[in-house]
Amino acid sequence: MAPRSETTDLQTLIDDALARTPPGRVVWVAISGGLDSCLLLTLAAQACHRHSRPLHALHVNHGLQDAAAVFETHCRRLCTGFGVPLFVDVVEVDRNAGRGLEAAARAARYAAFLRRVGEGETLWLAQHRDDQAETFLLAALRGSGVRGLAAMPAHRNWQARRLQRPLLAVSRAELEQEAQRRGLDWVEDPSNRDRRLDRNFLRHAVLPLLETRWPGSRESLARSATLAGEADDLLLELAEHDLAGLGGDAGRLAVEEIMALSAPRRRLLLRHACDRLGLPRPPARRLESLLAQLSARGDAGVRIAWQGVDARVWNRQLWLSVPALALPADWRAEWDGVSPLETPLGLARVGLRGPGDGPWRLEAASRRGGERFRLAGRGHRDLKRLLQEARVPPWRRQQLVVIRQEDEPLAVLDPLTSRWVIVAEGWEGVAQCGASVKPAAS
Predict the structure, then answer these.
(1) Measured between alpha carbons, how far is residue 433 from residues 37, 258, 351, 418, 436 in Å?
(2) Which residues contact 353 (CB under 8 A, 6 or more apart)?
(3) What is the spatial distance between Cα 442 and Cα 411, in angstroms, rounded to a whole number?
(4) Percent of the chain predicted with pLDDT > 90
(5) Which residues are within 8 A (CB) of 193 and not within 5 positions of it... i.e. 6 or more apart?
(6) What is the mean pLDDT of residues 239-259?
(7) What confidence score (pLDDT) does residue 77 get?
(8) What is the DSSP string of 259-292?
(9) Which is nearest to 373 in space by CA: 360, 385, 356?
(10) Is residue 158, in this structure, part of any structural domain at all?
(11) 7 phi, psi to nearest 5 deg
């Protein structure tokens, strides 16, 4: 986030932000009813009117306080005055999630953003420089690394959507001055005075005290967050470089090559691999335990788990995935070899072609044991041996789907990756991308 020129007015900031959004796509403003978001909506409405851009507003009603209805009513009145369509999402905040009320409310809010804002569209958030300073301090007090200290980026891609914070370089005092100059109405959130909440304690007790000793401390803290963001971008490039050097498969990493890196780069690589897979990052202690066990023997059955993730070492490779679920032993389904195959572990968009014209009457089912496949040039081979040759990890073998025709095994499918593992002679497996798998063990 570059320093803001004193001569740059707020409307210019909004115009610049609008120029960075995809032409013709809807721009959304998250509006709470407070000063910051009401001013952002006002500026956005004027900019979108001048440039003929579609603008929508989204208000999330958390239902956490008696004033919730007042906030919603004010948002409706403001949007009506500007002719901006308003969408209101009433959400339930999970107070028992074990992560604190503020974090739970944020999770519910972002879930609402995901439901309403379409892919390729842009959502504007009204955080400002003071918010950035508070976020930086909170992250530092939690002992966060560079990514946490980077606080809030001015813009980023999120779930195929674009998040922007056009006012992030502006102080709360400047926003209030502009709102008063415009005669803007807003609603004061009574919870903002509750010093039992961490952010409010920093806002009302800590930061004013810092300003008495170090004037301009909010701006300095926000600048530190910007510098941390730049450092995090560089670390991301380094992690991506290391991952590419290990073959690019975030779910399967060679142990020897991991251990050849320095300890900080190992930690960085494993966190990045989880990010690439969409998996939660490991807590610090689990990460250190995992790294300590990477030197174990290849057949030692190493397994480290944390919420939503299984990390296992097998065949001198580190495998990262969601916890393994076996196919139900009695599961079976008819399949024509053409339509996507629905399994208990997900939808596999694959096909299977055999002699003559399809569709074929096939059965998809879990393994029974003792299956043998006829392979070109090899005759009949036992499935257990074939899976060993294909280096399928033991915990994944109970997830595989066996395709049969009149009780004859024809192919083995990994439903989690939509990948054919084995295809018998005379048949051809078709992958999701349209590529074919030759009739042999993969």
Answers:
(1) 44, 31, 11, 10, 9
(2) 337, 427, 428, 429, 430
(3) 11
(4) 64
(5) 200, 204
(6) 94
(7) 95
(8) HTS-HHHHHHHHHHHHHHHT-PPPPHHHHHHHHH
(9) 385
(10) yes
(11) -90, -5
Q: Which domain holds residue 311?
A: 246-321
Are residues 37 and 138 located together in one domain of the fold?
yes
Q: What is the pLDDT of residue 194?
A: 83
- CA–CA dist 95, 145 (Å, integer): 27
Strand partners, 142: none
Residues 98 and 149 in one domain: yes
Last residue of a domain, one of 257, 289, 321: 321
CATH number of the CATH domain containing 310: 3.30.465.60
Q: Which tokens belong to 57?
A: 């507003």
- Confidence at residue 66, expressed as pLDDT on a 0 to 100 scale: 75
Out of 169-183, 186-200, 311-325, the most confident range is 169-183
Is 1 domain-assigned?
A: no
Query: For 127-153, what is each residue's pLDDT tens digit?
Result: 999 999 999 999 999 999 899 999 999
> What pLDDT score was predicted for residue 297?
62
Q: Is the dihedral angle over the CA atoms 63, 67, 69, 71 positive or is it negative?
A: negative
How many angstroms separate the CA atoms of 250 and 14, rounded?
38
Q: Quick check: is 5 in a domain?
A: no
Cross-strand partners of 441: 422
What average pLDDT is seen over the chain? 89
Q: Above 90 in pLDDT, residue 91?
A: no
Q: Give, in order, the Cα–Cα distances in Å from 268 to each of 177, 244, 251, 296.
A: 43, 14, 15, 21
Q: Is the dihedral of CA 309, 314, 315, 317 positive or negative?
A: positive
Rounded distance between C-alpha atoms, residue 378 and residue 40, angstroms: 70
- Give me the amino acid identity at 159: Q
Write the pLDDT tens digit of every residue in 183-222. Answer: 999 998 877 788 888 889 999 999 999 999 999 999 999 9
102 and 174 within one domain: yes
Q: Rounded CA gap, 431 and 418, in Å?
A: 7
Residue that is written with structure tokens 């963001």 in the block? 229
Rg (CA), the chain: 28
Residue 92 has pLDDT above 90, yes or no: no
Q: Looking at residues 31-36, what average pLDDT do you find?
A: 94
- Angle, CA of 356, 360 and 364, to the nearest 5°: 140
What are the angstrom distances between the C-alpha of 55 and each of 16, 74, 165, 184, 206?
16, 18, 16, 19, 37
